[in-house]
Amino acid sequence: MKRLMIVLTVAMVGLNLVANAAEKSAVPVESSSVSRMESRTKDTKRDPGIFGDYWWANRFLSRHQQIEKVKGRTVDVVMLGDSIMHFWEWKHPQSWAKFTAGRVALNLGYGGDRTQNVIWRIEHGELDGYEAKCVVLMIGTNNNSTDSTDPANVAAAVEKIVGMIRKHQPSAKIVLHPIFPRGVSAESAKHAKARVRNDRTNELLKAFAERDGKVVWIDFNSKLVDETGWVPLSIMADQIHPTAAGYDIWMEALSPVL
Predict the structure, then answer these.
(1) What angle do CA 134, 182, 99 make, to 5 degrees?
(2) Which residue from 28, 61, 170, 191 has the highest number of Cβ atoms inside 10 Å of its Cβ?
(3) The pLDDT of residue 119
(4) Regarding the domain delimited by 73-257, which CATH topology (the fold level of the hierarchy) does it fall under?
(5) DSSP of the chain
């Protein structure tokens, strides 16, 4: 734990150096390694911890505390991604309890995370100290929220993450999801353009999964949209995060492979 606290402190102090190094590197930012230790919140109920309103640092510490509890043991399923995974456990605890009943599970989803943040987290121990039977990966929608993002860079970063999972958890089954659909219509200003980038990223990820031949590609996006091809509010009330009904659909899709 002392070592972990040192990692946290150094990461917070050195954040600007990391960002500057990423900017100077030839590696696209999506495939670089970036923490979010500077992330703060005005919501005092969000992942409270010893770092006060630095919620991401609190989340990182809490995940390592969970990892300490399963150290040396087998974990049935690891959920690796962003808020879409984070909110399953945090905002829909009853659904999460149903999904994890009889399973040892780690939820490694962080609200707002992008591929580069997942890379940093893996580099700093989130896939170490235990043996995972299955790692479920979905990441990239937050990268694609930015107009300048190239979906090819996002897909390449996801491929890199798959390689990192294999290095840290060589015996784990890797389940790769396409990025979930978002937005209730083409007029959804916040989501429609990102949806186009997500769709292109998903095409590239599907091609990668076919080439790779080892990752388990599970695409149930068609069950998250209606006849218009867009997301009904009953499935995603805020147009991006599943409701309990949406998580039930996910649970049903995952259960046969866990």
Answers:
(1) 35
(2) 191
(3) 98
(4) Rossmann fold (3.40.50)
(5) -HHHHHHHHHHHHTHHHHHHHHHHSSS-GGGS----TT---S-TTSS--TTTT-HHHHHHHHHHHHHHHTTTSEESEEEEESHHHHHHHHH-HHHHHHHHTTS-EEEEE-TT--HHHHHHHHHTTTT-SSEESEEEEE--TTGGGSTT--HHHHHHHHHHHHHHHHHH-TT-EEEEPPPPP--SSTT-TTTHHHHHHHHHHHHHHHHHHHHH-SSEE---GGGGS-TTSS--TTT-TTSSS--HHHHHHHHHHHGGG-
For residue 19, give the nearest of 1, 3, 33 by alpha carbon: 33
CB neighbours (10 Å) of residue 67?
20
**In whole angstroms, what is the distance from residue 182 CA to residue 190 CA?**
9
24 pLDDT higher than 50: no
Share the mean pLDDT of the chain.
93
pLDDT, residue 147, reads 96
Quote the percentage of the chain above a pLDDT of 70: 90
- Per-residue model confidence (pLDDT) at position 40: 96
In 3D space, the residue among 55, 108, 119, 106 whose CA is nearest the CA of residue 81 turns out to be: 108
- Provide the whole-model pTM: 0.91
